Prior knowledge:
This protein is an alpha+beta fold and 283 residues long. The protein has helices at 6-13, 62-75, 80-84, 88-94, 103-122, 143-152, 158-165, 175-191, 206-227, 256-271; strands at residues 26-32, 37-45, 51-59, 134-136, 141-142, 230-238, 241-248, 278-281. The chain is globular and about 60 Å long.
Amino acid sequence: MWEYSDIVMDHFRNPRNVGKIENPDGTGTVGSLACGDALTLMFKLDENQRICDVKFQTFGCASAIASSSALTEMLAGKTVDEAEKLTNKDIAAFLGGLPDQKMHCSVMGREALEVAIHNYRTGESGIKHLDDHIICTCFGVSENEIRRIVTENSITNIEDVTNFCKAGGGCGMCQSDIQKIIDSVSSTRSLTPPSPAEQPRKALTNIQKIKLIEEVVEREIRPSLQKDGGDIELIDVVGNRVLIGFRGMCAGCQSSAFTKHDFIEAKLREFVSPEIIVVEEGE
């Protein structure tokens, strides 16, 4: 039995945004029933070029359904450029983590988003094509895909590659090639100095923290709430406690607890600081 977080189980039992969109601006289909997991993701933009509607259809396990559902929540209100920056690690973090053997579900969500964005920008097919060097023929995983997964997730062994994309989990004939990719990425990583984004983040002053929280509320949180007739007011910041007030349709909504912990807290931890650990309703 896999150890799933409460958030994963909630998104599995009560998946958000299941269905299809008529005339979507972007659509992406990845995976296959033969491999056990398949996902189609669709999105539509509003007049401000922000994602105003997003739907998915998934065939797969609890983690695949939960990852797809979480991704749709994360995409709401974003521009395509902002959406493109999401990684599989962001999806897993939003869900409070995934078992190692199920991380490939978060990767599948990221891939579907990538294909959907490509479809939107080019008008080309919204179905993932295996058009480069295939390493794992059992699951149709390419060299470029393995290389990116190893790089983005700092993977150092074949078992983790299998957990993230299934490559190497079939006949095993490709494992030596996978190891060569891991070794290649590791050697490149050792020669590359850390980027500014990888440097330890300096502690924010109280004024900097409050200003950044205000910016995240305006850019990442408020548009999503207003889309459904709700709103939010930032009342105060006390240490690592952020006091907010729900307004409009959000006030008294039965889903406000989920919105507070699994959406607002997640956004503030992502864009401000992991140390922001609690969001509370204030007077």
